[in-house]
Amino acid sequence: MIYLDNAATTKMYEELVEIYKEFGCEKFFNPSSLYKPSLDVALEIRKAKAKILEFFGSQAGEIIFTGSATEANNLAIRGVLKKNSKIVISEGEHPSVYNTIQDLKNNGVECEIIPLQKDGLIDSQKLYNFVSQNKDIRLVSVMHVSNETGAINNIKEIVQNVKKINPSIIFHSDGVQAFAKIDIKNLGVDLYSISAHKIKGPKGIGALYIKKGVRLNPIITGGGQENNLRSGTENVANIIAFAHAARLYSQQYDINKMLEFRTVFLDILKKKICDLIVTTQENTNTVPHIISLIIPKIKGETLLHIMESKDILIGLGSACSSRSKSNRVLQAMGYSSNLSESSLRISFSPDNSLEEVITAAETLASAILDFRK
Ligand code: PLP
Predict the structure, then answer these.
(1) Ligand 1 in contact with 320 (CB < 6 A)?
(2) Average pLDDT over residues 88-96
């Protein structure tokens, strides 16, 4: 099987399995208990946090582990809400941000959605204009890397400009598709969400980075774990495995290899499919391991299943929204609903080989040509 849907999830590092044995069956102690074996487990959690914090550079902050990035995004957004405060997001956000905002809107919270440009980046000028004209904004949330197109928003610059206009704004970024792949040091963000399963870590573990001094209210209350921000006994093995995966993945991720994969894949398709629309930008504002395509007049789902019958797994776009046929993000970039239904997302991991990429591109091209005959 050739697996090219790594933006949806990745295969866990096999060596992490040992961690589950160690922290499930041997060092199984509750990190909140007061005896030595528990204190040792609590220390392992602190070490895991320190390993993850290293990715954020010199800016002081803390890591709060959550059950997913979806939860981290919810904690960031719902946790900073105050009465009458406005929230601003981009049209390109993942459903875990976008639908949270829709829920808040239904409950009377004022939320503004800033459009995307044709290249998939947030229209930052529109963001700055909105921030200048509205003094009561509490939170701005802009994703770092788009899970649909791979577009990289220049978060450092956007944070600087937003804070120049209004320093009291809290800035959150969903960094799920960026973490351990591109540099996230000293972005200036107040809050940043990450997830383990996109980097060959386990599923069911995410984290929220919180800059020192930023105050949040919990959305899960109870025994007060995670500095009172996420109650519930810590998922120790997942936490330790997350930190290991982050280090392994960042060492394994080779941007030149991913660039080669993208170039080879697209060259094969462009030569054979003359009406191919590449919705991903082939430039430095885009991560090379995510390619977004439109193949006009063929539903993305149809091609996905033809490819599946040939033992090659590809994506349609966000797995979380794949049940909705049209693609909200592509439409926000200016593509029609019809075209957006013909979209595909190919995403590589360091596990893929050039041979797999070539086979997948040739198989996809033949599948399109055969279907059209
Ligand atoms: N944000 C982005 C950009 C994602 O791609 C995803 C996963 O698809 C999430 C958030 C949600 O992550 P999780 O599956 O850990 O809830």
Answers:
(1) yes
(2) 97
Q: How many angstroms separate the CA atoms of 354 and 311, rounded?
A: 17
Long-range contacts of 128-131, Cβ-Cβ distance < 8 Å, separation of 24 or more: 128/161, 128/162, 128/165, 130/88, 131/88, 131/162, 131/165, 131/166, 131/169
Q: How far apart are CA 270 and CA 281, in angstroms?
A: 14
- Of the residues 66, 77, 89, 96, which should be mutated to test ligand 1's pocket, given the most ligand atoms within 8 Å of the CB? 96
195 ligand 1 Cβ < 6 A: yes
HEC per residue, 269-330: HHHHCCCCEECCCCCCCECCCEEEEECCCCCHHHHHHHHHHCCEEEECCCHHHCCCCCCHHH
Report the pLDDT value the prediction gives residue 320, as an integer from 0 to 100. 47
Query: What percent of the chain is helix, strand and coil (3-state, nearest 5)?
Result: 40, 15, 40
Ligand 1: residue of 94, 142, 289 to mutate (most ligand atoms within 8 A of CB) is 94
SS3 114: strand
0.85 exceeded by pTM: yes
Q: Report the pLDDT averaged over residues 260-282.
A: 97
CB distance 177 to ligand 1 below 6 Å: yes
Burial group, residue 301, by CB count within 10 angstroms (0-12, 13-18, 19+): middle
The reply to whether ligand 1 has any atom less than 6 angstroms from the CB of 176 is: yes
User: Which of 222, 288, 361 lies closest to 7, judged by CA?
Assistant: 288
Residues 6+ apart with CB under 8 A from 307: 313, 314, 360, 363, 364, 367
Report which residue type is found at 33.
S
For the cut 80, the answer to whether the pLDDT of residue 207 exceeds it is: yes
Q: Which is the closest atom of ligand 1 to the Cα of 8? A: 8
CB 112 within 8 A of CB 87: yes
Distances (CA, A) of 247 to 19, 43, 67, 135, 183: 15, 18, 20, 40, 13
Q: Contact at 8 Å (CB) between 16 and 201?
A: yes
Expressed in angstroms and rounded, the spacing between residue 72 Cα and the centre of ligand 1 is 10
